């Protein structure tokens, strides 16, 4: 089993309770046809297409559980990774910190007809109720930004993985809703004479690789997508600034969502190893001369 949970200061407990309340509220307001969430889930699982490996036991960790489940079903007949004949995913554990979110996903399970054995669990990403070295894949779609301790949650995921297991996650990046952040800041300065944060802090792209390394993953990989949706639904003061600064000629207003995709593996002897420094037999100067460089 995983180690004992860490102790939190009272203010951190309040923050965690607030986050859980927000997760419950998100379950009540969820839009199953959200194009952003469904696109990110599809793009996240696309990264498995190039992996020549099966994942019999998979943990889906928080975030957009149903979108991941739906994307898995949609790949059953066309993808070599997810066909039942290869048993790529035999057992799927769906876990979220919100009971309401888990119940919502469980109620939707009747809509999926495939051979994946699916179970449901309420649990904290920062203290996974999962045995060490028990799953082949941990996947999280837009859920880890709800945690107080992102590196700790990623370490918990690594410990839950078997050797050579894969961690695959999508998180919102720091450029998300950049237009709204700017508009909110200006509106607050004009109307209230000061600035207070309205959007949770998000990871920067440059930090994602460090997070993977800090959590102990090998072969870390990071790439980024940006999505823009043209909706105008902000407070009046913010909307006025927003429109004046970012409105397009047709009157629509862009809202940017930056998504950072992260992959990392639990260490295994079969994985590639970096060459020892100084072991190269050809210099870059020799390569430049060979190919006509200057």
From TrEMBL:
Residues 76-168 form the Methyltransferase type domain. One of its GO terms (biological process) is alkaloid metabolic process. GO terms for cellular component: mitochondrion. InterPro entries: Malonyl-ACP_OMT, Methyltransf_11, SAM-dependent_MTases_sf. Keywords: Methyltransferase, Transferase. One of its GO terms (molecular function) is S-adenosylmethionine-dependent methyltransferase activity. This is Methyltransferase type 11 domain-containing protein. It comes from Centaurea solstitialis (yellow star-thistle).
